[in-house]
Amino acid sequence: MAMSGLHATPATAASVFLEDQTWTELRDEIKAGTTTIIVPIGGVEQSGPAMALGKHDARVKALAQKIAEQLGNALVAPVVSYVPEGSISPPTAHMKFPGTITISDTTFKALLDSSARSFKLHGFKTIVLIGDHGGYQADESAVADNLNAEWAKTRVRVFADRNYYKVTQTGYIDKLLAAGVKRTEIGTHAALADTSLMLAVDPAMVRQDRLAASPALGPADGVYGGDPSRSSAAFGQLGVDLIVSTTVADIRAFIGRQPK
Questions:
Q1: Which CATH architecture has domain 22-250?
Q2: For position 3, what pLDDT does the model report?
Q3: What is the pLDDT of residue 11?
Q4: Is this model's pTM higher than 0.70 or not?
Q5: Which of 62, 79, 113, 164 qualifies as a FRET site for 69, CA 20 to 30 Å off?
Q6: How far apart are CA 29 and CA 37, in angstroms?
Q7: CB-based burial of residue 160 (10 Å sphere; 0-12 exposed, 13-18 middle, 19+ buried)?
Q8: How far apart are CA 186 and CA 204, in angstroms?
Q9: Can you spell out the DSSP letters for 125-183?
């Protein structure tokens, strides 16, 4: 009996995640035209008593995967987890809650800058920054603007797609209102809109038995401007679909404007 197949490795579906590639596989993918790299930016911060600290990291990685798969010629870089979240002494914003991790804006921008330079070196032509948290959106744009000015005579460009985050504060809210959600429920952080997105992406990150607290959750609990008690994956899927479709369209349009 032939034994050659006993130790064969089963075939796996192609991954869009950079860290899943070998260097030779990556080299060949870039040569074959996969020249767009998406840099998902998350953050580790409190999101109330019902959502895990890694909310932003988990969400941006999952959505970046969907975006890359729809584009078809893109890979996803490892998630940037260390981001500006406020000062340490005295603690401000989410730093007042255990588990939140912060770095300076200068360090954050240097990290993005060095990462982009690495991707350019290896042959990527379009470097896309998408951020799941509102506090560092301007930093993303600053890095992109600086590198694009420096690389003006090349074909490589950096795209800080701030619409990825913006639609969570605009179009997604409109869809929730149209679905019968009250504006007083939606909130700005760890309330219905935010929690529903997480339920749609990874419900294991949400402690659903803690959503309907009595008395209602509020700023002292890390929940701002709304009520998460009626959060649902169905509501969140409205946002997921909008974020992905908007970002895919933005990236395609940006690539279409790049120097050839």
A1: 3-Layer(aba) Sandwich (3.40)
A2: 44
A3: 39
A4: yes
A5: 113
A6: 12
A7: buried
A8: 21
A9: SEEEEEESSGGGHHHHHHHHHHHHHHTTTSS-EEEE-THHHHHHHTHHHHHHHHTT--H
- Residue positions counted in the chain: 260
- Written as six digits, the tokens of 5 are 């197949």
Read off the pLDDT of residues 3-52 as tens digits, 9 standing for 90 and up. Answer: 444 444 343 458 999 999 999 999 999 999 999 999 999 999 999 999 99
Among residues 54, 58, 41, the alpha carbon closest in space to that of 115 is found at: 41
- Ranges of residues in the chain with a pLDDT under 50 are 1-12
The token pair that represents 205 in the structure block: 């990150």
| CB 190, CB 219: distance < 8 Å | no
Q: Is the Cα torsion angle 118, 23, 38, 101 positive or negative in sign?
A: negative
Token readout for 194 is 């935010």
